[in-house]
Amino acid sequence: MTRRPPVDVIEATELRLVEEPPPQLSAEHRAARDRVWDELASTNSALFDGPVVACTSLTWPHPHELLLGWARVSYRNFALRRVPGATALPSLFVDVLQPTDDGALLVAQMSTATAHPSRWHLPGGSVEHPDAGQPLDTAALRHNAARELLEELGLHTAPDALTLWAVTRGDHGNIGIHFAAPPQPATVLHDRFAAVVSATTAAGQAPELEQITFVHSPVDLKGLDGPHADYLEPLVDRYARILL
User: Fold this and answer.
1) Which of 71, 58, 52, 69 is nearest to 10 (CA)?
2) What SS3 class is residue 50?
3) How far apart are CA 56 and CA 18, in angstroms?
4) What are the φ and ψ backbone dihedral angles of 243, each rounded to 5 degrees?
């Protein structure tokens, strides 16, 4: 078995984002990308070619200041990972460390109807690019993260209440922007999640998340059946160490 490369955990306290043009594709790579995407979409109805942000560069102008270059693409950009000789830009995603009152951390398992069935991760998702003329900055990322909390867990969290906690670079060079939310009682988190599942099911749709649970350390992750997001263990470990 090939060992997965370690995930970089970057302790950035300030983010700057600069829009850059996506790289030009040859006609051959563009056609191959579209063929791969069409094949994937024909077997997975959860895939859709919506607008999304990809990373074009990552530099550190100053200690703890991270400069991210980003480009407007669609999800089919990531099909380039399966095209020999082509380069797919890494994705940019946000998620939230949602603690409980007793110091546990909420983790969620994606449903079988998603692009990553049964995977355990933090609540969050890919970043959609802003409308033309609108900035993509830390405030916009906070709004993205708060929207994910509402959609996935039914939590109304003010974007300003989310604190930049860490940045990771993991599988395929994907960049994760991780925010920390104020603690909530575990009973509230369970009730809000159950309400989201009930409402989604009643509307005839499949819930995005299969289940949620709470962990205190990486040891607890070992008891969860299913694959884990590559950043999950390093972040849970860092969170547990900070609490000690």
Assistant:
1) 58
2) coil
3) 10
4) -75, -25
* Token code pair at residue 69: 């270059």
Buried-exposed string 134-167: b where 16+ CB fall within 10 A, e elsewhere: eebebebbbebbbbbbeebbbbebebeebebbbb
Tens of pLDDT, residue by residue over 1-23, are 334 457 888 877 899 999 999 88
Sheet holding 51-62, edge to edge: 14-19, 65-74, 51-62
- Round to whole Å and give the CA distance between 156 and 99: 15
DSSP state of 84: T
Taking the C-alpha atoms of residue 228 and residue 119, their distance in angstroms, rounded to an integer, is 5
Give the global pTM: 0.92
Q: How far is CA 83 from CA 5, 37, 78, 154, in A?
A: 21, 10, 10, 38
Tokens of 61: 């102008």
pLDDT tens digit sequence for 130-143? 887 788 999 999 99
Which residue has tokens 């989201």? 196
pLDDT cut 70: percent of the chain above it: 97
Determine if residue 154 is left, alpha or beta; phi over 0 gives left, psi from -120 to 50 gives alpha, anything else beta: left
d(CA 107, CA 96): 10
Give me 80's structure tokens.
């380039």
Residue 80 has pLDDT above 80, yes or no: yes
Q: Which of left, alpha, beta for 35 (phi over 0: left; psi -120 to 50: alpha)?
A: alpha
Contact 168, 179 (CB under 8 A): no
Tokens of 44: 């997975």
Complete DSSP assignment for 110-173: E-TTSSSTT-EE-SEEEPPPPPTT---SHHHHHHHHHHHHHHHH-----GGG-EEEEEEE-GGG
